[in-house]
Design brief:
The structure holds two protein chains of two kinds. Chain A is α/β, with parallel strands linked by helices. Chain A has helices spanning 5-9, 37-49, 60-80, 93-103, 124-129, 149-155, 178-187, 207-210, 235-240, 275-291, 293-311, 341-352, 364-369, 386-400; strands at residues 18-19, 22-23, 25-26, 87-90, 111-115, 135-139, 160-166, 191-195, 214-218, 229-233, 251-254, 259-261, 317-319, 331-336, 354-355, 357-359, 375-379. Classes of the chains: A alpha/beta, B mainly alpha.
Chain lengths: 403, 165
């Protein structure tokens, strides 16, 4: 079923507005997506109608808040094919990965294997573990930016405790063959963690099918609120993990010396939570599910094909990653000879209200290793149209004529 | 660097009148300071200024292209012109102060030309609000309802007064 983009756009109040007399063309979805009115309404509903503590008090408001919070967890669990008890509310992907880095029982000599295109949130936690004698190894991609499975096999030795990889790269949109990687990791006795910040909002993810041990993603990249994320973990694994942040609502009972912890996910959710955010994220997950993740993926690839075909004709323009748009999902990252990336991004914004991102996209390590100062990144979502893509192409061509 | 210095001067002046430009002036100052201390300026102010100017010229593609290609040269020329202009203004102002101190007139001896320093004592009729606060002010347009209160002239909006020396 094809997407009814124009109808869906009505759900986003900001897309009905004009900035400096022109409509907004939002192509910065890998950073943050726009929010539909129903997500904002779901959050407002909490603050307006039942702004109470969850699971603590016996009054009506608290019961209602608890009900909605539980419901939100169920919606998110359904969205990724998990059980609610396997879904931990976090602030974002970064917090989810840090939780694993701090809770997993690493020993000196253990290895964490990542790709060469990790966002800082899946690089720094492992760098920090170096002080404890835990090693970090990198599995380099092929020259075209795609995952090198043979290289991965070579790097996978018995000391690899965890394979922690970015599912879809935020630099070039390439997706790693997660199922094969996880299968190989498990055969080796390693655990697998996926940074799914750029994949969960754009394609159908079923954690059971993937057989992934841990999966982290953010709410703000999937029409949800900021400051809300999810860490999925297999229940048995989560049960074994020792929480690194403890406090209110993580325990059944305490004495002055001891504590009896609750089961996951509660034992990882210390202190009063972002209830409105969780409810908003639940609404966003449900909304995306109604649209259909397969439809979203298809729409993004179609737009990517159109843009790639047109901008590839511009002399001096280089698209990062594989040239085949089908391998890049909704991301087009590029550089242009003789034009500064930030200057291009600023001109796109000034000339046609086109919001793109320029820079190293929090993957400084990859850009520094490849001696590329950064790129202009166009990242699409289901509410972007062909007409917007056309305006972008025309504006970019005008900018390139400045050279 | 050159763009940041120009921006600093321009935004600092505009900042006197509008808070909007004060933030930009601070940013320009930070950028200039960093450049002067051999650190990279990472505020992106120069890029934004260049993009802002180029965007305005996009209606005339040739002009936009010229600006894009020669931005550094243009800003360097503007910078030199600004320095020359400031130096000249400083020299002229200094000369005026010296003349005023020595001869009582900023234009030098035997000159009856206008001098800003003795404007309060000028013989010409002036708009009331600024200069007419002497007790002997005479309103030449009494119908505008000028008042003299306690020996001091209280100006009314739009009143024109003559101020005899």
């Amino acid at each position: 079923m094809a997407l009814s983009v124009e109808k869906l756009r009505q759900d986003f109040p900001i897309l009905q507005k004009k900035l400096s007399g022109k409509p907004l063309i939002y192509f910065d979805n890998a950073c943050m997506t726009l929010k539909p009115a129903l997500v904002v309404a779901a959050m407002n509903e909490y603050y307006e109608n039942f702004p109470a503590c969850v699971g603590r008090s016996a009054h009506k408001l608290s019961k209602l808040a608890t009900e909605k919070y539980v419901e939100a967890r169920e919606k998110v669990a359904k969205f990724i094919g998990a059980k609610p008890s396997e879904v931990i509310f976090t602030r974002n992907t970064t917090e989810g990965i840090n939780l694993i880095a701090n809770c997993l029982d690493f020993k000196a000599g253990d290895i964490v294997l990542t790709t060469d295109k990790e966002h800082n949130s899946n690089l720094l936690p492992w760098q920090q573990l170096k002080e404890k004698g835990i090693l970090h190894k990198i599995c380099h991609s092929k020259a075209d930016g795609t995952f090198d499975l043979e290289n991965f096999k070579k790097n996978l030795d018995k000391n690899v405790k965890l394979v922690s990889m970015v599912h879809t790269s935020n630099i070039d949109g390439t997706t790693i063959p997660a199922e094969s990687i996880i299968e190989l990791a498990h055969k080796n006795g390693s655990l697998a963690l996926l940074d799914a910040a750029q994949s969960v909002p754009h394609k159908k993810i079923d954690v059971k099918k993937l057989d992934v041990d841990f999966l982290a993603f953010s709410g703000h990249k999937m029409c949800g609120p900021t400051g809300m994320g999810i860490l999925y973990g297999k229940f048995d694994l989560l049960k074994k993990l020792k929480p690194f942040m403890v406090g209110g609502d993580t325990v059944k009972s305490t004495t002055y010396e001891t504590a009896e912890f609750l089961l996951p996910p509660e034992k990882f959710e210390a202190g009063l939570q972002n209830y409105a955010g969780a409810i908003g994220l639940g609404a966003a997950a449900e909304y995306l599910q109604k649209i259909g993740l397969e439809n979203i993926e298809k729409h993004e690839i179609e737009l990517n094909k159109f843009i790639t075909e047109e901008i590839s004709k511009i002399p001096g323009l280089r698209i990062l990653g594989p040239q085949n748009p089908e391998l890049r999902g909704g991301i087009i990252s590029f550089t242009i000879n003789s034009l500064d990336i930030h200057y291009v991004a600023q001109l796109l914004d000034n000339m046609a209200n086109i919001a793109v991102r320029s820079g190293q996209h929090c993957v400084h390590s990859w850009f520094n290793a490849h001696k590329i100062p950064g790129s202009v990144r166009v990242s699409l979502y289901f509410y972007n149209t062909k007409e917007e893509a056309r305006i972008f192409i025309d504006t970019l061509k005008k900018i390139c004529e400045l050279r | 660097m050159v763009v940041c210095i120009i921006a600093l001067v321009v935004f600092a002046i505009l900042g006197i009148f509008s808070a909007r430009y004060r933030k930009l002036a601070k940013e320009a100052f930070d950028c200039t300071f960093k450049k002067l201390t051999f650190k990279p300026c990472d505020t992106g102010l120069d890029t934004r200024i260049k993009a802002g100017i180029t965007t305005k010229l996009m209606r005339w593609p040739k002009a936009a292209k010229f600006m894009h290609k020669n931005f550094n040269t243009i800003t360097s020329i503007l910078f030199i012109v600004m320095i020359i202009s400031m130096t000249w203004s400083g020299y002229e102002a200094g000369k005026g102060v010296y003349n005023y101190a020595k001869f009582g007139n900023c234009n030098g001896p035997d000159s009856s030309a206008f001098c800003i320093f003795n404007i309060a004592n000028a013989e010409k009729p002036r708009m009331g609000a600024l200069y007419c606060n002497a007790t002997d002010c005479t309103c030449i347009t009494p119908e505008i309802n000028c008042t003299i209160k306690g020996g001091n002239y209280t100006p009314c909006s739009g009143a024109t007064c003559s101020c005899p020396k």
